[in-house]
Amino acid sequence: MQQEPDASSFPNGGIRNTFEARGYSAWDISSPAFILDHTLCIPTVFVSYTGESLDYKTPLLRSLNSVDKAATRVAKFFNPEVNHVICNLGWEQEYFLVDEALYAARPDLVMTGRTLMGHESAKNQQLEDHYFGAIPSRVEAFMVDLETEAHRLGIPAKTCHNEVAPNQFEIAPIYEEANLANDHNLLLMSLMEEVAKRHNFRVLFHEKPFAGINGSGKHNNWSLGTDNGILLFSPGKNQHDNFRFVTFVANVMAAVFKHNGLLKASIINATNAHRLGANEAPPAIISMFLGSAVSSILDMVEKVDSISKISIDGKEKITLDIAQIPELTLDNTDRNRTSPFAFTGNRFEYRAVGSSANNASALIALNAAVAAQLDDFANVVEARVAKGEDPEAAILAEVKKLLAESKAIHFDGNGYSEEWKQEAARRGLDVETSAPLMYDSYTRPDTIEMFEKTGVLSRKEIEARNEVKWEMYTKKIQIESRVLGDLAINHIIPAAVRYQSLLLDNVFKIQQLFKGSKADTISSQDLVNIEAISDHVQAIKSGVENMINARKQANRIKSEREKAIAYHDNICPFMDQIRYHIDKLELMVDNEIWPLPKYRELLFIR
Ligand code: ADP
Ligand code: MG
């Protein structure tokens, strides 16, 4: 039932010293054991000798337990027969595939999971021909193999399709109870790596492996359902059910509003930071999309004085005047692809989660925040009822209060726009864009209080986890920066100089053959290029030198937080600068001399 792995070699944020190594893993019986590569694998929690959790599973299970208790209290107001509330998760795993041989020829992909350089290819996703096109046959063979392996392990894989960017794809299962769904996601990710190799592919889970095209996320479709089959975020067929729906939506709004900074911190890391706020991904601001139908219901609720006045229209239909096409049913929400947290009919879709993430991080924060909110709600409603108030009137009054207080989180407009960033700041939402600073949301007094009250994480655990997050951030950027420096100095500059000397040789010969002004005319463009190559090479050299110096300075900083901030503020900008000059050189240098596979080669494998 339990084992004793080493807890000090595991990132633990100072909870364990190297000389006090004991830690325990214990069987999580709610997630089935499985056999992989002739090995019996048992899902476990991992805690230290001193009782703190070192893993994601322990706090995830605690958060599921607390949201179960709190949501059951509130669900009982409407349906006294409810005994438990289950949290459901349906993740959508996006990924890229790259040919194995080309992958091996890109040290940046091998070491960091993303390309640190590479000029945009002339054609990328402009024509949407990959998204809407057929699945490439090599990829289809991989998908079939993957689905078969997934089903063998009990992972209910269902949907496989092309995604927006060339060579980008998605796999999604049928949703399951959140703890099991997350274990299945982690298992599937490792399965994908195995199966991809059989097809001479490498799978990229990095959120932004290629600049200039779509990044990869892992949308978390999240809902709460009761043990007797009621989906709590699903509008119902009568007043009573709709009142329950509105109550739960208002509580989620309040929780997401109060903890929007924390929710963002729960999904940010060095890799997802490249995706958030970039043009095609959710912005680095958490807001909530509700859609016109639900928005107008909530507006109505704010104005009514009794629940008998709350009405929700049935689904509308569209009829196309084509005899063989049936009537189409319209969903009660449109889609807003720019929203990081969107209502989608009977669930919320948390889209800011990154493709490489362990979903537990987002779910721990979300479930704990919602549990705390539902508990507060149940407390005030019960107190009002104890004073003799009618339960329905008490619930309605409190729902109206929540709706009024948490309006700022509701945004149905275009999340990519510049105006939204300013508007969000005016509304008091968290608009921080630096990952190391976002982690401060975890240690805010209201966050710690919320986590301790729900029993999900202790202050000590939160502080230790933040240490690990800062340390990981620093290490990731440090590795990228080193790889970029090496590639620039050992691959790119020698290639550029070799090409430059070919040009110089050519100019020299022209001067000998033609002489005078004719020679100058013939070699004028070569001379411009020779100079430009020198300029770029110089810029790269000094950029790398300055970046190394900035790293040396940052490495002397003792505090993990300050060090991560220094890496973000002082080292990342050099990486962008250096890349800019390398990408310019890529366009100039002879293709035969260029040492790395280019985007057009990496992205268009069929
Ligand atoms: P999209 O159209 O957004 O790409 P997908 O079909 O790829 O959607 O994925 C939707 C995911 O949401 C699936 O995993 C599906 O099982 C899951 N899902 C559907 N209903 C619920 C629900 N009520 N709660 C949680 N997940 C759900
Ligand atoms: Mg999908």
3D structure, described in words:
The mean pLDDT is 92. This protein is 50% helix and 12% strand. It is globular and about 105 Å long. It has 17 helices and 16 strands. The protein is an alpha+beta fold. Helix 1 packs parallel to helix 9 and helix 6 packs across helix 9. The longest helix has 56 residues, at 459-514. Adenosine-5'-diphosphate binds at residues 88, 90, 92, 159, 172-175, 221, 223, 231, 346-347.
In angstroms, what is the radius of gyration? Answer: 27 Å
Q: Helical stretch count?
A: 17
Amount of helix: 40-55%
The distinct bound ligands, ions and cofactors come out as: adenosine-5'-diphosphate, magnesium ion
Question: Averaging pLDDT over every residue, what do you get?
Answer: 92
| Largest sheet, strands/sense/barrel | 9 strands, mixed
Quote the beta fraction.
Answer: 5-15%
Residue stretches low in confidence (pLDDT < 50, at least 5 long) are none
Distance between the termini: 48 Å
Class by helix and strand content?
A: alpha+beta
Number of strands: 16
Q: What best-fitting shape do the alpha-carbon axes yield?
A: globular
Regarding quaternary structure, what we see is single chain
Summarize the structure.
This protein has 606 residues and is of the alpha+beta class. The protein has helices at residues 57-78, 100-104, 107-112, 137-152, 178-198, 239-258, 260-267, 291-303, 360-386, 391-405, 418-426, 435-438, 445-454, 459-514, 516-555, 560-588, 599-602; strands spanning 2-3, 23-27, 34-36, 39-41, 44-48, 85-99, 157-162, 168-173, 176-177, 201-204, 218-226, 288-289, 317-318, 328-329, 341-343, 348-350. It is built from 17 helices and 16 strands.
